[in-house]
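Why should sequence recovery work at all? Because a backbone constrains its sequence more than one might expect. Tight turns favour small or flexible residues, buried strands favour hydrophobic ones, and helices have their own preferences. The token representation captures these environments compactly. In the example below, the structure is given first.
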């Protein structure tokens, strides 16, 4: 079973609002829903979440989900270090773009 099939199990919601899904092979807990990157007409949404897969340390996770989070597509997970590095690079790029735009005014 793949991570994309994880949502076929039962859902439990904890006091802090996080949801836990489990099947025989894969379980996950959405610790924090950070946002929706895009939504499709079919109801699936590409989301950024902070998820613990199989009771392992949580990672940032980008993938498409059904509205009930019972099904998901393949996605990508990023450690805190990897996400911080991406944010650093994007910040550097944005600063360079802003400086270039200021130079053209």
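From this structural description, the recovered sequence reads:
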């Amino acid at each position: 079973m793949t991570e994309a099939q994880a949502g076929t199990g039962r859902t439990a919601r904890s006091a802090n609002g996080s949801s836990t899904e489990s099947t025989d092979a894969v379980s996950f807990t959405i610790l924090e829903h950070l946002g929706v990157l895009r939504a499709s007409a079919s109801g699936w949404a590409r989301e950024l979440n902070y998820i613990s897969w199989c009771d392992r340390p949580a990672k940032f996770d980008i993938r498409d989900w059904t509205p009930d989070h019972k099904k998901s597509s393949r996605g990508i997970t990023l450690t805190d270090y990897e996400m911080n590095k991406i944010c650093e690079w994007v910040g550097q790029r944005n600063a360079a773009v802003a400086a270039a735009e200021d130079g053209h005014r």
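A few observations help interpret the result. The CA atoms of residues 24 and 39 lie 29 Å apart.
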